[in-house]
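[INFO] parsing input record for Mesoderm-specific transcript homolog protein isoform X2
[DEBUG] input buffer:
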Amino acid sequence: MWMREWWVQVGLLAVPLLAAYLHIPPPQLSPALHSWKSSGKFFTYKGLRIFYQDSVGVVGSPEIVVLLHGFPTSSYDWYKIWEGLTLRFHRVIALDFLGFGFSDKPRPHHYSIFEQASIVEALLRHLGLQNRRINLLSHDYGDIVAQELLYRFKQNRSGRLTIKSLCLSNGGIFPETHRPLLLQKLLKDGGMLSPILTRLMNFFVFSRGLTPVFGPYTRPSESELWDMWAGIRNNDGNLVIDSLLQYINQRKKFRRRWVGALASVSIPIHFIYGPLDPVNPYPEFLELYRKTLPRSTVSILDDHISHYPQLEDPMGFLNAYMGFINSF
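[DEBUG] output buffer:
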């Protein structure tokens, strides 16, 4: 009898604790993240609010660069190289994809790479830049969005961007050499478990999951991790992570379309690579990249730089990118 009462008591205690846990408010924005948000703007795509940054840099240069961020973070990933880019480009533009950062995170929603590419096109129309030649700089998930934009450019689709150059970085552009994190696999294919896992996800689980994709000497500080987590928790973004992760399946399904787009265009293409990346491991990834895209140039950063090169080695990343941009 006592045993049963013990379980009942634990159960009664657990219910309010779980309820309280599930209603933990998102963390406060740090001053740096708050100023990033307040210096940005929003535009509306099919009734959804999309956050973006648009800085006017060098006067007299016609050059425009558009930055496409990775999973599961946001446009804030570019903050360390932002100022450096404004010294070379007339316009520096970045957005938070739908479901990321400060943009809306509808649920349920069928998130897709195709929709994200259309949002980029819509942003440039909104800014009146749809007929200008664009330099794309992308990372991780953003690499795949860039591949779709490239495909549309190659097909001469209406509404497409005119792409002048493309620089990719540490993205799983080949499904066969991509090694998703355990947490990604669980959430992507969790079925009934996914909604439970996304609700139980907290800062501790997130930081333990993300830290291993950084190099040993360039790991993010606690406050940097909190900034990333705040971006995810904004608008309950943790609850859409499983939907966003369907991009891994989309990439397999559309491999021919997306890898084919990279292999068949004649614009300058570059890849900046942090070689310690566990998600796109060295040397398998690089060998396949060079074999598939012999015309592309590659910058390999220091041995200890991993999956987030623009955060881990901003100067090395910026130098590599400027070297590419000044080469054509």
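[INFO] The mean pLDDT is 94.
[INFO] shutting down worker
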